[in-house]
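Methods — Computational structure assignment.
A single polypeptide chain was analysed. Its primary sequence is given first, followed by the predicted tertiary structure written as structure tokens.
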Amino acid sequence: MIIWKIFLPRITYSIENRKSRVVNDLDEAQKLKENAEKKLKEYNEIIEKSKKEAKKILGLKNPRKNYGGAMENRTPDLRIANATLYQLSYDPTHANAADPRCEGRA
């Protein structure tokens, strides 16, 4: 009986203390989740705003409209990339006969 009076209050106190910690941890986790969702929403809004601003700066209502095609309305970056690719694939021992820069070489 003495053991019951000594250990029962301690066990009860320990259980209540753990319960309190668990409840506090769950509350804190909920607050952190809400904060993370809020930050994610802000981040997505910033990304969308940046995309719209980039399109506005480029003046592209239809992004595919101003690239490539028979009218040669290519961007300077594409022209540079094509020239670089040509230089990387150039082999002086096998000159391309169709390339006017290679005339007289064989």
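Note: The radius of gyration is 35 Å.
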